[in-house]
Amino acid sequence: MMSIHPHFLWTDLFKKNKQSQKTVANNLKENILFCTLSQSELKYLSAIVYERIYQVNEPIFQQNDRGLGMYLITKGQIAIKTKTRRGEVLVTVLTEDSFFGEIALVDPGNLRTASAVAIERSVVIGFFKPDLIEILERKPAMGVKILFQLSTVLGRRLQETTEKITQMNRAKNHPSESKKAPLKADS
Fold first, then answer.
1. Where does the chain show beta strands of DSSP type E?
2. What is the pLDDT at residue 110?
């Protein structure tokens, strides 16, 4: 029987690890903003987006910073926090395949309404407003696809926010009803 040296690497050299083989284009294709793009459009987009690693507790942006673009999480967790008179409040924790900061792509004077901080070592893809403008100028059909998807997302988030505010006001004005129908938790 042949023994294998503990440092023998050949067995792992050609083994494909699907997670590590996932390309930027694959990550983009799985995102709602870019899912309608063709393979050649995804390849083009992959060449202009920025991938970056953030370490634990490293801020991605701070509340009231000028918004320059959006971020797609490919690995890790990002905390979205906001400062209030009572201190810092955790709004949500976003994980792999989530994205945030997309309003910066369309709002000319956008100031961040919250801070984003890596909870663990995280890999994110940044897509910035100048990139979107370049796409609109060089590949207008591709830009329209992205803007259409972006408007769908923003509309859906506005609708969800309106529903939550309505539920909160209903609970505040009619406390007995809030006991009957608790607010739906985010998933």
1. 50-54, 59-61, 69-75, 78-84, 87-94, 99-100, 115-118, 122-128
2. 82
